[in-house]
Structures are given as C-alpha cells and as structure tokens.
Amino acid sequence: MKAVRRHSWLGGREPYWLVGALLILCFGLAARLGLWFAQWQGNRLQSANLMGVLLGDSRRMFANHFFAKADAYFHSGFYPTVFDNREAFQTPHMAEDAGAMGGHNQGDEEGFLGAPRDWIDKFSRKFFPSVHTHLDEGGPSGLADKGGDLGGSSEVREILPWLRLSAALDPDRVETYTVTAFWLRKRMGKVEEAEQFLREGLRANPNSYELLYELGRVYAENKNDPDRARNLWEAALRRWQKQESAKPEPDKFSFVEITSHLAKIEEQQRNYSQALEYMEMWKARSPSPAAVQKQIEALQEKLRAPEAASPGKGSGSS
C-alpha cells in the first residue's frame, strides 16, 4: 500500500515546484557565469585571437618559446638547450643588441657546449652550428653588407614570423614589439611597418614607456623629426616616473636610455640648459656616472665659450 502511495505521489503534480526551483537555479548560475565570462581575459569578446583563446593562460609560455626560437635563429642555430650552460644567454642577445633590454649575461658565449669529449664529438660538431654568430654581424655566411642591410636575407625573414606569433600570443610582452620594430627598421629598412607594429603594441599597452621611447627613435633616426621624437620621449619619461620611480628596484636601463636621448636631442637643438638638466638626471642613474660627468663639463664649457669670447671681441674692436 505504501509503494502504491509513493508511486501516486511521484506521478502527481507536486514535483513541478522542484522543476521550477531547478530552472531558477540554472538561470541564476548562467547569469553568474555570463558575468564571469565577460570579465575573463580569455573570452572571445575581448580577443579576436582564436589561438590565444584556445591556449588560455598557457599562451604566455608559448609566446616565450617563440621569442626564444627567434633568438635561436638570430644565432643561426647556435643556441643552448635546457641541458647546457645558459649563463651567457640569460638575456636574449637579439633584444640586448636592439637596445630593448639591459644585458644580464655572464660567462662564455662561445663555450656553452664545453670542450669536445673525444675526436668523435669534435668531428660531429662540423655537422651542426657550433660557432657563436649574430645575423646582424653577417651570420655564419657573411650575409650582411657593409651597411648592415639584411633585408634580402632569408634567415632574417624567418625571424620575423616567430616574433609576430609571440606578440599575438602575449600582447602584454613589450619587448617583443620593440625588438621586432628594431629589426624591421634597422635591418630590413621597413620603417613604416616598424612604426605600425609599435602602434599596435601601444594599443595593447597604452602605458608603456618602452614603446613610446622606441617610437621616438623611429622619428629621430629614420624620419628626421626631432620635435616629434622629443615629445614622445618626454611622454615616456613622465610615464617612467609615474610607474617606476617609487619602486625599490626601478628600471634604470630604460631611464638612462630615455634621458640620454633627450639630452642629446636638446643639445642638437641648442637647448643647452635643458640638455644639462637631462644629463644630470641621466648621471644620477647611469652605471658610468663619470663618463656622463665629462659630457656635462664639455657642455658647460660650450656654454661659457661665448661669454669668454665676447670680451675679446670688444677689445679687438677698440
């Protein structure tokens, strides 16, 4: 009798309230997940990069791998593995040579393979890259001409896709944009493409003083527009001061690069007093303050020269 009653209870209309409660719960959960998904960095609403969406946070690991792959091409394949001594490769040489990062490398760049263990090991090294070279120095085959133009080199063209893929996977990695722009404008002569790539980086990293500094180099070195370059470097300095000055270990390398270029461009424009101010800032964080002091003294001497020459002119005329 109890079994029949239980069956009739299940077959009645009473469980509809349970179904309604489940529907309300599902609706609330969907609304909560929708809000979370809208704020999630990996959703398709914030990124049109399908590969970045699929890889999620692991895309940064792949981006770092592709950046290292580009650096390996920069060395024509002569690059340490995870089993070799990497002290001389802590900072990617490609980024260091481009001026995008300060160097922290130690040890022997040539000797991470170590001495050959026997004649077989020595002979086998003839069949893979075993000499330290850089593409901007000509590479193993002397690819660069006297002007350093590598635009026709297939090896250089192989570097750029790795860098672009690294930037696509991790758009927050600023040095990828600065290194790629350097190679485009200095080694391949593609100034407009370099500027466009830097501006893409600025859209992804609007507060980056490194990208503003590199964009200023484009206008100073390639477009002969010192006023535009000065404005960009001044903006880069303001952002550095806002982001880095209060840190216990600020980015001194970028500060020195920005202030030294500002000092030089002000000196070129004969704004000597402003140039001296930037030189004092440069000196304060420079790893070689004595060398900067010599430049300060030379500029101060240049400022005093007209005053020293004016009495002579007066006595000569009388």
Task: Describe this entry's structure for a reader.
The protein is an all-alpha fold and 318 residues long. The protein has two domains: 47-195, no CATH class; 207-308, Serine Threonine Protein Phosphatase 5, Tetratricopeptide repeat. 64% of the residues lie in helices and 0% in strands. It is built from 14 helices and no strands. The protein has helices at 2-11, 16-39, 50-55, 59-74, 93-97, 119-124, 154-169, 174-187, 191-204, 209-222, 226-244, 252-268, 272-285, 289-317. Helix 11 runs antiparallel to helix 12 (252-268) and helix 12 runs antiparallel to helix 13 (272-285). It is extended and about 100 Å long. The termini are far apart.
Shape field: extended
Q: How many domains make up the coordinates? A: 2
Distance between the termini: 136 Å
The secondary-structure class comes to mainly alpha
DSSP summary: helix tally: 14
* Uncertain residue ranges: 139-154, 308-318
Strand content: under 5%
What is the mean pLDDT? 73
> Share of helix among residues?
55-70%
* Spatial extent as radius of gyration: 30 Å
- The count of DSSP E runs of length 2 or more, i.e. the number of strands, is 0
How would a crystallographer describe the biggest sheet? none
Order of helices and strands: HHHHHHHHHHHHHH
Give a short synopsis of this structure:
The chain is mainly alpha-helical. It folds into two domains: 47-195, no CATH class; 207-308, Tetratricopeptide repeat domain (Serine Threonine Protein Phosphatase 5, Tetratricopeptide repeat, Alpha Horseshoe), CATH 1.25.40.
